[in-house]
Amino acid sequence: xxxxxxxxxxxxxxxxxxxxxxxxxxxxxxxxxxxxxxxxxxxxxxxxxxxxxxxxxxxxxxxxxxxxxxxxxxxxxxxxxxxxxxxxxxxxxxxxxxxxxxxxxxxxxxxxxxxxxxxxxxxxxxxxxxxxxxxxxxxxxxxxxxxxxxxxxxxxxxxxxxxxxxxxxxxxxxxxxxxxxxxxxxxxxxxxxxxxxxxxxxxxxxxxxxxxxxxxxxxxxxxxxxxxxxxx
Length: 232
Ligand code: DC
Known about the structure:
Blueprint: E1 6-11, H1 18-29, E2 32-35, H2 37-50, H3 57-66, E3 69-72, E4 79-82, E5 85-86, H4 94-104, H5 107-123, E6 126-131, H6 134-138, E7 144-149, H7 152-165, H8 172-188, E8 201-204, H9 210-225
Parallel strand pairs: 1-6, 1-7, 2-6, 7-8
Antiparallel strand pairs: 3-4, 4-5
The protein binds 2'-deoxycytidine-5'-monophosphate.
């Protein structure tokens, strides 16, 4: 693809397949991929381990600033690192997932992590970035902004499958209630609530396969940017 900068955002609730879609799309377009939920999960892990109150925004912001929170871009997908420690799989555990909603609701922490995300985009300006607020808050001027949604039951099913494939013990009811609880918290929080950004493209993946979602996004990107992508 052309070497000029291009930012593509994908927002949406938990379990819509954003991470998988973002990875496949970035591979297809020869771009980098940023999973911003990993940053919130890594800070939640730090809070768990240090006994920090998940509602203490200023303390969480200090934690996030003090440690060297970064991605190892030599891995595929890029590994979430706290200093030299690869926490990519630890941050997917249920204790971290349960903690992450209050942590992600703290505006002081969000300010620090928004800055970190914009720094990544400066260094890696051809970026597919996914999360809850990428098109609404962090990159409102992105070249193309998507909002990926799906039925709750389908999302719980997908998350269960993803966890069982990763070798984790799966409790479907616990996963469904975790998704429901996080949706509620993500949508109702004061700081950067989950919303479909105005002017973004809605994609409902309930009855679409991963490949179909990626195809549809790639078509929209072609249409909007008018670019020719070498890898597509
Ligand atoms: O996408 P995920 O499940 O890994 O996200 C973990 C949590 O972090 C989720 O509860 C929402 C929050 N999050 C957020 O508030 N803003 C983002 N940009 C990414 C994730």
